């Protein structure tokens, strides 16, 4: 017994290096796994083995049913203050300076229906799983439904919320609605498994847009010095028409320029999970799972609503003598509609994931799990959207080196990292299990890439749960958890959010601002398992 305890302590100590975390995986997947800090690869729990290690299915005998439900709330906030010597092309009075974001709620995407328009304090995700095993057979079959990935934000309560420029609404979800799986018992100590999760993926972004950068600021100052208040003069008419848009066509780097809404889905997107479970001793087990990724192909719709500032400016320029010539040289549109919509597509990777875990049971009533995982979030170097036509608003961006107005590339620059997780299970009584989990997640979003679309800094996930056997065929599991983290992005340090350079049009809406923020996720899960 002392030998086992020493081994458990040594292994845990060796893995207590700085931990690394991914983005949003495993937050609403399994009640038991969440309670154990998602460190269950070497001890996969019941039907949730389909996701965490399908080899665990081969440990199950007879038929069973699992009904599970999760409730999760996400709260995030940010505050803005002008950085040292704040100046955007001669403009210093940013109305967002010294403001903070307001209330955040959750939204949801219903497959086959779309966005119901509900603003929710939290999101509930029910699911059901089943397994089948004939007595004496080494084969166990199963399926499950669960949320494999989720990020949900709604900032529409306050129309003046400064967070509106990086997501009035954001919904990224991957709902596995079927996951046919099989586990095979090769021997009493070695098992294999494979699962094919079939997911419905949704990607929805609704954001207002503004473009504070040096070039736009300098041009706005030129207008202020050249154009009379009524917006025009005779010299300008025979020139380039920079004043022809009138008062509404006066350019400012701090004005709202447009609204963009994209709503994309991938209704049928299968991946594959492969697992191995080796249990040579009652007190030791090793598990490995590979969760395959996908180049998920999304299709859907878009809508751009452009404010009068750019519409009037382009109209005035094209009403002058030399403006159309300059516009043609710069690739400007002849006009910008107030609203432009159509169909679009995008290929957004769902990263592959490798996880290795140990189960150690130094004494009969104490179990320690330690996992290490690696997810390829580096595939999110940029998000690329293809539109069915040239977007007139984006034609203005040709001046900033954006050559194709039928595409939109949003840089991300995420990185692949390793994540450690720890779980402790105590069994003081035969029918009761007490579970504790700890998962320190070092973010996959580098400090120079963080923004309000992905406000995911280093976080710590703490969980606690219980399992209770009502009788020999029925048990329940209950889990609560809390994840939190903070970030600080001084001005000009994250070029996904607040860089102030000459051509940073896509996309730094808080150019020159110091941005501080945080994220908090609260989770509650309940599960009922029944064997037949």
Strand content: 35-45%
CATH architecture assignment name of the domain at 2-197 and 271-291 and 352-376 and 416-531: Beta Barrel
Mean pLDDT: 89
The unreliable regions are 1-23
- Rg of Cα set: 27 Å
Shape: elongated
Class per helix and strand makeup: mainly beta
CATH topology of the domain at 2-197 and 271-291 and 352-376 and 416-531: Porin
Strand order of the largest sheet: 1-3-4-7-8-11-12-15-16-19-20-21-22-23
Summarize the biggest pleated sheet: 14 strands, antiparallel, barrel
Number of helices: 8
> Which homologous superfamily in CATH is the superfamily of the domain at 2-197 and 271-291 and 352-376 and 416-531?
Outer membrane protein transport protein (OMPP1/FadL/TodX)
Give a count of the beta strands, DSSP E runs of length 2 or more: 23
CATH class value of the domain at 2-197 and 271-291 and 352-376 and 416-531: Mainly Beta
Distance between the termini: 36 Å
Portion of residues within helices:
10-25%
Summarize the structure in short.
The protein is mainly β and 532 residues long. The protein has helices at residues 2-14, 31-35, 49-52, 214-226, 234-237, 308-318, 323-330, 392-395, and strands at 64-82, 99-100, 123-132, 139-143, 146-154, 169-178, 181-185, 190-195, 198-209, 258-270, 273-281, 284-291, 294-306, 339-350, 353-363, 366-375, 382-387, 407-411, 417-429, 432-441, 459-471, 474-489, 513-531.
């Amino acid at each position: 017994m002392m030998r086992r305890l020493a081994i458990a302590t040594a292994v845990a100590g060796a893995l207590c290096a700085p931990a690394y975390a991914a983005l949003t995986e495993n937050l609403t997947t399994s009640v038991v796994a969440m309670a154990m800090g998602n460190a269950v690869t070497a001890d996969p729990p019941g039907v949730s083995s389909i996701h965490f290690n399908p080899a665990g299915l081969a440990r199950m005998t007879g038929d069973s049913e699992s009904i599970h439900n999760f409730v999760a709330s996400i709260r995030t906030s940010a505050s803005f203050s002008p950085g040292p010597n704040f100046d955007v092309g001669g403009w210093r009075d940013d109305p967002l300076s010294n403001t903070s974001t307001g209330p955040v709620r959750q939204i949801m995407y219903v497959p086959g229906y779309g966005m119901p328009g509900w603003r929710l304090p939290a999101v509930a995700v029910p699911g059901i799983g089943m397994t089948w095993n004939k007595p004496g057979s080494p084969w166990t079959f199963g399926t499950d439904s669960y949320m494999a990935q989720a990020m949900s934000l709604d900032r529409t309560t306050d129309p003046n919320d400064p967070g509106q420029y990086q997501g009035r609404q954001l919904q990224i979800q991957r709902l596995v609605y079927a996951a046919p799986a099989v586990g095979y018992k090769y021997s009493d100590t070695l098992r294999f498994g494979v699962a094919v999760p079939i997911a419905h993926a949704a990607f929805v972004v609704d954001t207002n847009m503004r473009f504070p950068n040096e070039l736009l600021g300098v041009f706005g100052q030129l207008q202020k010095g050249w154009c009379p208040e009524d917006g025009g003069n005779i010299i300008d008419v025979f020139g380039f028409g920079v004043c022809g848009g009138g008062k509404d066509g006066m350019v400012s780097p701090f004005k709202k320029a447009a609204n963009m809404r994209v709503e994309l889905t991938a209704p049928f997107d299968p991946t594959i999970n492969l697992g191995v479970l080796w249990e040579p001793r009652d007190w030791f087990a090793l598990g490995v799972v590979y969760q395959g990724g996908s180049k998920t192909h999304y299709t859907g719709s878009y809508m751009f609503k452009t404010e009068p500032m750019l519409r009037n400016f382009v109209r005035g320029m094209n009403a002058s003598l030399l403006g159309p010539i300059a516009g043609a040289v710069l690739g400007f549109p002849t006009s910008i509609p107030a609203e432009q919509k159509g169909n679009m597509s995008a290929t957004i990777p769902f990263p592959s994931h490798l996880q290795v875990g140990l189960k150690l049971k130094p004494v009969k009533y104490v179990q320690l799990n330690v996992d290490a995982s690696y997810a390829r979030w580096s595939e999110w170097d940029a998000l690329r959207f293809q539109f069915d036509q040239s977007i007139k608003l984006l034609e203005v961006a040709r001046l900033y080196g954006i050559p194709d107005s039928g595409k939109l590339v949003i840089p991300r620059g995420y990185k692949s990292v390793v994540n450690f997780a720890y779980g402790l299970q105590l069994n003081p009584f035969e029918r009761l299990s007490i579970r504790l989990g700890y998962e320190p997640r070092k973010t996959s979003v580098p400090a120079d890439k963080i923004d309000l679309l992905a406000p995911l800094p280093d976080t710590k996930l703490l969980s606690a749960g219980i399992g209770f056997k009502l009788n020999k065929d029925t048990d329940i599991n209950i889990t609560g958890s809390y994840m939190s983290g903070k970030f600080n992005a001084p001005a000009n340090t994250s070029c996904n959010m607040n860089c102030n350079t000459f051509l940073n049009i896509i996309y730094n809406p808080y150019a020159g601002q110091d941005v501080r923020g945080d994220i908090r996720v609260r989770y509650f899960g309940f599960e009922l398992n029944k064997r037949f």
